[in-house]
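Standup notes
- DV: blocked on the single-chain target, sequence here:
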Amino acid sequence: MNPVDWLLDSDPTIRWQTMRDLTSATPSAIAAERACVARDGIGAAILNSQDGDGAWRRPPAPAWLTTLFTLQLLRATGADPADPAIDAALSRAETNLRWSDHGGRWDVRAPELSGPSGGNTFFQGEVEPCINGGVLAFGAYFGHPNHNLARRLQSEQLPDGGWNCEAPKSKVSSFHTTICVLEGLLEYQRAPGAEPELLPQIARARKCGEEYLLERRLFRRRSTGAVVDPEFLTFAFPPRYEYDVLRALDYFRAEGGPPDPRMEEAVQVVVGRRQPGGRWLLDGSHGEAIALDLGETVGEPSRWNTLRALRVMRWWEKA
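- DV (later): unblocked, structure below
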């Protein structure tokens, strides 16, 4: 089976994105398939595993972590924000969940349990930009863009163009934090309801953050040219807050601009990891805190990685 047919013979979350990104399917056919996400497969499993208070839980992970990563996964499914089931799930989270400092750890608590040291609604975020980038991304995507959170992230940009959760102690940026924030800012910039006066600032911040990555060819140290981390050249799903070149390239593809020549070496990394038969393996998984099993095994062919790699390659080759 060729890789596109293999992707089409899959969960609605994979199938509809394959139709959109890799086939000539009609808009009506794509929309019909996308509508299945909330009612079948992974998307439905996510919605069905939400607790009544709006959180997702998978002990022993804290509720905030499972909720954060599960909503990041729901955004990755491309579920339609206008679907009533999706809207209801996100509204429960926004209405009921608060960030509060619980025993020295940030946790998601019901409003009546929030202490004086916390109280932000879930879509207002907390303190670390890598977490807040993810919160802004799914909040904006699902129709809950938080203007203060977007301002905060824009204000936390470091002089080298990126972001770091260890700032201000650290004066240099982190690839991991930077990609999380860039994804959040991009979703905010596209969100209905974003504040128009904020958009030029967000665009400038994204441009600087993108340059941080591009100046380093997406995985090299600017000072020496050495590979920053060999794991940047392997592909995990779900990525959570972890950086790799496939995640970065898929961000630039989603951004909609033309490829930059400085991405070429990273693209060749992706091409080089293609297996016989045209599929990509799942090199790693960061799904231990997520409330469901995605059905993929490390070391085996991955539909998520194959989908993302094929659409990056199509975008690159069409330029």
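- Follow-up: The first helix runs from residue 3 to 8.
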